[in-house]
Request: fold
Amino acid sequence: MLDWFAAGGVFMWPVLIAGLVALALALDAARRVPAAEGPESDGSRLRSRIDAVLFWGGFSALLGVLGTLVGIGMVADHMGRAGSASAGVVWHGIGVALHTTSLGLILLLVSLAAWFALRVALRRRIAV
Reply:
């Protein structure tokens, strides 16, 4: 797993950091949802915290796509300098470039699930 992460290059770190921010926000919101009381509580501040989970998850996915584009650009540059390259070398480079998108999309899926669960929990808590 660590080798896979390291092979993804420098963009893996910002993707991971954005995902950790989303996780921290989700945990903080989950801690605050039980304190939201009844219909008189509009929960707007908590709702904005919960929406931030989705933002940071999407941000990590976009950073992953950016990392992939940079990686594919690097592969194309190296191929241009070499003049020719075997298909195996090219596809290995593209596969490594896709690591950042994979991590970003995994983090987005986790963020989406957390966002949805927190929104449902908040609606139920406020409706009581």
